[in-house]
Amino acid sequence: MRRPHSAPELNGNARRQERSAPVHPISGPTPASAAAPSPWRQRALVPVLVSLGMLVAIISSLGAPLIPTIAAADHVSVANAQWSLTVTMLVGAVATPAMGRLGDGPHRRKVILTGLAVVLVGSLLAALPLGFACLIVGRAFQGVGMGLVPLAIATARDSVPPERARSALSTLSLTTAAGVGVGYPLTGLLAESFGMYAGFWFAVIATTVALVAAAVVLPASPPRPAHPMDIPGALLLTLGMSGLLFTLTQGEHWGWGSPRLLVLGAVSVLLLAGWVLQELRTAHPLVELRLVRDRTVFAAHLTTMMGGVGMYLLISLVTRYVQTPSGAGYGFGASVVVTGLVLVPFSVGSLVAGRVVRILVRSQPPVRMLPVSCLLSFAALLSFVLAHDRLWEVFVTMALAGLGVGVNFAVTPGLVVGAVPAHETGSAMSFNQVVKYIGYSTGSALSAVILQAATTSGDGLPPESGYRTAGLTGCAVWAATAVVAYVLTRSGARRTSAVRGGRPAPAGVNGPVPDGGDLLRNTGAEQ
Length: 527
Fold this sequence. Notes:
Layout (H helix, E strand, L loop, with lengths): L6 H14 L2 E2 L3 E2 L9 H23 L5 H8 L3 H4 L1 H21 L4 H20 L4 H12 L4 H12 L2 H17 L1 H15 L3 H20 L13 H24 L4 H23 L13 H29 L12 H7 L1 H17 L8 H18 L4 H29 L5 H30 L9 H35 L17 H6 L6
Antiparallel strand pairs: 1-2
């Protein structure tokens, strides 16, 4: 009869198995008992995850080129039609942390598939000619898909082989910017050829394909404990963000000094302050805000949010400007197709920025890229203010904007992952997506507010000076953000240089944990 193993022997065996388990470069040691997926599913996983990110980027961009068309077809103001874009970003800002928290437990696969199903329903509602209200509800449901990006990043971190994990993370991060250059011309071409709703029918088809592919390829969720959902935090974030954005969009209509506008703004700020207190107090917060105390992480989140503001502020301005009939004294009277093509240089610039960053971080600390991204975005808005009389000048502006946003989106994941504990990576990246979508929705709403404020009562179009005012506002914001980012990252640059070889490994992990520079320097192998 065999003698049962003693406790020390069992612990020793467990330690030997842990040491023999492969170490993932991002998520740490892989459990020895984890079942390996079939080879073809393993090969298909990264393309499917990237297609999810691209689908989200395309769906998020479906609204912008169609804003003037939606306003005319549904007999609403352009400012109200802007909500077809803003509501998607708003729902994305709220859905992302909730889906990220649910996806951290044992239900990640289910959350991804459910999110895709909600996007499919929203695409159907938006595609059916049932009026403006139905379109807005459908676009809101589509915003749930914005929460798929951090889940795709978490899946890549846990399930992609180590030699491909870094490349997959970099590609997923850049798809949110690069996909805009696909979604805008595609939307324009479909709308020009088949009508306003054709782009949403394309979303129905693309989401159906993605849902089937994800159901076949996605691996089982990792065996992690489930935590209760922070329902009060989700409600406070939803109400606070909705109130602030509604305040922005109604300011010109109600009057910026009207009591109800001031009360709504004050209540919204108090709700967001209550959300912060709730996240700091609860045991299982929707977003772990304590991680933001690190200067590098704070700088990364700040520039990401401002990157979102600048990205959608400029995109909204440019798409409206180029479609304005030349009889107004400015604009090009461009079709929806040409308007979409204007965004192609933006995607090209963001992809080029990813390549350039991987070269620069070989000799420079990656934190130094954050102020550079701010200055590039500043240059893009200044270019739009000073030179927009020819279409090629607008193309140059969008290429500069793509470089600025691309640098930020390429460097941020590595900085965040390298500055927080490994077990908090998911929460930190989820918050980074939240601030990005807050920036998107704020930039979209801000452009409409400034142009509406410049429009004389009774006129259907704002004067050219309104675009100049919006551009200069963006320049001022970017200049301030560049200064703050430089101040915050000076110490971060010295710290990154000191630990260039990687952070010390936590207990149980063989080898150093890569810092932000390591993650970025090794993202080119699979691209």
